[in-house]
Amino acid sequence: MRLGILGSGSGSNMQAILDGVADGSIPAEIALVMSENPEAYILERAKKAGIPTAVIDCRGFKSKFPEEAQAETAAALKAAGVELVCLAGFMRLVRTPLLKAFPDRIINIHPALLPAFPGLQAWKQALDAGVPETGCTVHYVDGGMDTGPVILQNSVPVLPGDTPESLHARILEAEHRTYPEAIRMVAARLADK
């Protein structure tokens, strides 16, 4: 299975996926890594691994992902032979052009146990709410903000004295285990179709 990865930041989840591909635990290859942030370290990680990269042109919008940019992104992913799109810290909402191009083939990792704490800084939301545990969720992308069907979740305890940074670090460790496992599950489902 050929994966396309979209990310906006450091790419630590992409690295976990890449490690799973390299050790054979994920039956896939990463065909293309894309970011709307030309300075994102995810692009550097991909280049170091010999993976093709591309920058998404969001036409100067700081947070929007215009339909034209989504259509161009979909075309680039299709041209690379991508079969499954993995959002890995991608900070833009995916809408119709990408969803139509990859129906039920776009997944995302979110740092909370959805449906709790969708959106930004979910670890901080969990701390502010005083919950005893939070975690991470891999889900299908459906056009809403973190609303798609859940594929896999893993919980992380909220410890006394946790700061947003310490909790986020533990959630990230869980993400690095959970995302590769979820990709294996999705790849197996797609292979059975």
TrEMBL record:
Pathway entry: Purine metabolism; IMP biosynthesis via de novo pathway; N(2)-formyl-N(1)-(5-phospho-D-ribosyl)glycinamide from N(1)-(5-phospho-D-ribosyl)glycinamide (10-formyl THF route): step 1/1
Residues involved in N(1)-(5-phospho-beta-D-ribosyl)glycinamide binding: 11-13
Gene3D superfamilies for this protein: Formyl transferase, N-terminal domain
Active site (record annotation): 110
UniProt keyword Transferase present: yes
EC number: 2.1.2.2
UniProt site (Raises pKa of active site His): 146
Enzyme's top EC category: transferase
Keyword DNA damage: no
Domain of life (superkingdom): Bacteria
Similarity-based family: Belongs to the GART family.
The name this protein goes by in its record: Phosphoribosylglycinamide formyltransferase
Source organism of this protein record: Luteolibacter rhizosphaerae
